[in-house]
Amino acid sequence: MNAYNHPAIQYYQDVSEQCIHYLSIDGVIFGFHENQLKVLLLRWKGTTEWSLPGGFIRKTESVDVAAQRVVRERTGLDELYLQQFHVFGEAERYDQADTWARTKLPIQQVNWSERTISIGYYALVEYSKVVPTPDFLTEECCWWNVDDIPPLLFDHNHIVAVALSSLRRQFADQPISHLLPSAFTVPELQRLHETILGQPLDARNFYKKLMASGTLERLSERRAGTPHKAPYLYRFKPTDI
Amino acid sequence: MNAYNHPAIQYYQDVSEQCIHYLSIDGVIFGFHENQLKVLLLRWKGTTEWSLPGGFIRKTESVDVAAQRVVRERTGLDELYLQQFHVFGEAERYDQADTWARTKLPIQQVNWSERTISIGYYALVEYSKVVPTPDFLTEECCWWNVDDIPPLLFDHNHIVAVALSSLRRQFADQPISHLLPSAFTVPELQRLHETILGQPLDARNFYKKLMASGTLERLSERRAGTPHKAPYLYRFKPTDI
């Protein structure tokens, strides 16, 4: 394919007509699986380069709705916990020539905006429910452990770092009700918090604070198949959704 | 003055050429005086209508720098504690026709953007150092008690409310080092926190947490002119700035 009929050209022409110039959305989609915090990344077609999912805001679309659309298209999920966390508004966020060369897109024809201010959102999703789906500029969409993320396109490593510190701050004092399946044990929830904080928590204090939060209810079932005495399952009370 | 030579027309023409369309900045500038939390508001020329200070982002200007500029122009302060707190991105944030009628601007000639997405920043400033300064669309700039704010133009009451809840969340677990003069007593700092939280705090717990934070140092002077035994003055350690 030569540069003159690259599908990205039509795409960016449409974006330029239908979307708000200078603005974009980047989505940091967090999942939790086998005691690892994970982020959904996309590999660009014909390259070994990865980035976060992203998109643009239609001229009459709410910014939150645009963010939901971006995350829905990559995960298949309709109901999402989505949190706006930061605007990345530096005049020069990254080396544009270098980045576009790495994407292998025909820069002269797709560079519709001299500069992009990105609104960062993070999503907390249930890992097992996600169907990772690339977009038409990318050929692979998959989970990466947060600790193993490669050098990303644009300033996306920085965006992941800011998302992670926002997530830590937000859930320093409340239990995270979004990344686990609907029924879980207290040790499973504790491991989620420990993974996000990057440090161990005292089990007794964690349990006490959790019960004091009043957000959980114990189910009558226990976790089957555990070697020790089977622990009770809990869920978040419906009003907390 | 008739609508055709209104100075706002030239202003919005310049903005349209030099600034990023669809985007604006709104600044919630908090001060603290006589145990009241205050916000700086502007009264629009020839009206009794008030709004927050705001402005636009130049095409090659960082968003943070634009926000600093907006706040500096209204306060005279160069060094500011400024915190981005939310993007107001609804497709229809307020009734445009009603708002423009209230501003008495010639809407047909100044309405350079069908829609504005606003990036909200709050600033924490030292009340006594501020020189409130209107811009050329407004004729009065002054402090209002947060509890007495009138119905504002645009969606600015909503923006103030979101700023206030962000401020409360941010300083739930750390002392606020930005709204008081450089030397202050512990009861003065406690009253600042109580005012922002809207509820009384236990003096002994407040003192204990404050000392545990390790951010304060006691000066050798005491507060003069107090009826009781003069309390010590404190300041934040320089590294905390």
UniProtKB/TrEMBL annotation, chains A, B:
Record has Zinc as a keyword: no
Keywords, in A-Z order: Hydrolase
Q: What InterPro entries does this protein map onto?
A: NUDIX_hydrolase-like_dom_sf (IPR015797), NUDIX_hydrolase_dom (IPR000086), WH-like_DNA-bd_sf (IPR036388), WH_DNA-bd_sf (IPR036390), WHD_NrtR (IPR054105)
The Nudix hydrolase domain covers 22-168
Taken from the record, one Pfam family name reads: NUDIX
Which portions of this protein are annotated as coiled-coil regions?
Answer: none
User: By its UniProt entry, which PROSITE patterns does this protein fall under?
Assistant: NUDIX (PS51462)
> GO MF terms on file?
hydrolase activity
What is the designated name of this protein? NUDIX hydrolase
Give the species this sequence originates from. Answer: Fibrella aestuarina BUZ 2
- Highest lineage ranks of the organism? Bacteria, Pseudomonadati, Bacteroidota, Cytophagia, Cytophagales
